[in-house]
Every structure is written in structure tokens, then in C-alpha cells.
Amino acid sequence: MTKILILGAHGATAQIVIDRLLAETDVTLALYLRNAARLNRYAGNSRVTLIDGDAQDVAALTAAMADVDIVYSNLGGVDLAQSTKAVLTAMSAADVTRLIFYSALGALHEVPGKFGQWNEQAIAAFLPGFRESDRLIKAQAGINATQIRPAWLTDAPEVDYELTSATEPFKGTEVSRQSVADFIVHLIQNPAQYAHTSVGLNKPNTDGDKPRWM
């Protein structure tokens, strides 16, 4: 049976992924987060293990990766690069090779025009971490990563998205968390897809100088 380790499991998108995996698949889940009691609603599920841990604790991460087939990182923050380095070190130690990594638009300097300029300013504190994480992932031999670069996230109850490759200009300004979760769930079910690549996700026909609610 496939086992998935979800890092930063309290994140909004991660929780959508968790619920869908439990409802639609037979995978088992290890949910790794600070203050694991926040996800106590899963404590009685025989397919779920809750792990209280720090994302930069290599020993704890390595232990959490025992028998894991896929690591899905939903980590963030201005110190993301340090967390990514710890995750990659732990994956090598635990001999886990498949990584799904939640990145951000702009991580590859791929967002064109006025929206790209606005995005650079809006998430200026976080982009260095995403960009350094991209460098670290690409430099880590033996890691098969799919990096996901979603547009600005909404809570719209919809699954409606298109993809752009790492070499294409980013499209659109927004995408729903439900859409990002849908891509992740399908990727977990078909892990041979989108190997060693970075994928942009956006809702079609949402181009503009900034997200519509800004």
C-alpha cells in the first residue's frame, strides 16, 4: 500500500488533499506538522499517523520517512530554503526519491508584464526561499521532484485550471486551492507523471495586472 508523507499538513491546500486521498484512494498518510493536535480529527483513522515535528529537524524528518513512497511538501515561510535543505537531506538518508513540492509563481522568474512586477513586490519576502529551494532540489541527485507553482490562491469551490511548463510564461493571476489539490491528488495517483519538472497552475482567462480582488 502506498504511503504518503505530508509536510506542513495543517495548510489549507494540504487539508483538501488529505480529505480527498482518504475518500478516493487507499493510500496511508503520515501527517507531519507543528502541534499535531490541530489535526486530531484524523486521530481515529487507521490510515493516518500524526507526527508532531519541526520541518528543519533532519532526524525527525528521516524517522517520519520510514516506508514512505512519496513526500508532499506543503511547507512555506521566509525560511523555506532551510526547511527544503533539511527535507532533501532526510530524503537521501531515508532513501526516498519522489517529491511533490508546493512552490510559488515567480520562483522561476517566469511571470511576465505588469502582473509579474506586482507579484515580485507582493511576495518579495518569500520569493528568495522559493528560488533557493528550486536550486537545491535541482542540485540534489536522485530526487525526482515535481514543483507546483500556483497563481494567487482562492477558496472558490471549483476545479478549473490549466498548466504551463517551466519554460513558458506564466498565465493568469488566480487559481483555487481545490484546483491545486486536484492536481496533487492526481499526481499522487500517477506519480510517473511530471517527473523532474516545475508546473504552473492557473485558472484560465484570469489574466490581468493583479488578482481581481486586489
From TrEMBL:
Coiled-coil blocks: none
The protein, known as: Oxidoreductase
Domain NAD(P)-binding positions: 8-191
Source taxon at top rank: Bacteria
Organism: Lacticaseibacillus sharpeae JCM 1186 = DSM 20505
